[in-house]
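Reviewers of the previous submission asked for a worked example of the structure-prediction workflow described in the proposal, so we include one complete record here. The input consisted solely of the amino acid sequence. No template or homolog information was supplied to the procedure at any stage.
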Amino acid sequence: MAESVMYHEGNRQLQDRFDSRRISDRLEEKLMRREFTADDKQFIESLPYFFLATADAEGRPDCSFKGGAPGLVRITGPSELAFPDYDGNGMFKSLGNIVVNADVGLLFIAMHEKPKRLRVNGSASVSDNDPLLAETVGAQLIVRVTARAIFPNCPRYIPTMSSIEPSIYVPIAGQEAPEPAWKGFADFKDCIHPRQPTFKG
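From that input alone, the workflow returned the following structure tokens.
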């Protein structure tokens, strides 16, 4: 097999220990791709959330839940996706990591009647003047990711769950989003940063 996009020496050591190098190579050969399919686009753009893994300049990892309305993430090119950054706690853990280390991993997962998951690994950038800001309600920044590897995962351990209702904090055109209660707690209220200007819709 040609040089692997998905595996490094640590992966290979364990694959060889458990005699799984052949199936790992076959999975990469048959399932890994560098461009989004029509099914990938439909799946990703239907979800109201995903998980984002980043690391700082020293490689120390962080994982974050990112939520919004369905369509939160958009496929913007054959190998590119984009998503908004909404008002949060102001720590900028994920986006700050991207500023110093562009390598990211995204996990898209559906937990309803037909469980499904898709991984996207690639390089990210953060912008405060991206054209998508003008059409994304509540966004203060836009993150774009160029995919290096797009890979569907076996869904066997995904529990089946029902979505009850969307978060009340999801930005909606023409409505002011409520502030989370923690911003009024005595320990924090004297140092809360102002909301940044965002597209209102």
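DSSP finds four helices and seven strands in the chain. We consider this example representative of the routine output the project will generate in years two and three.
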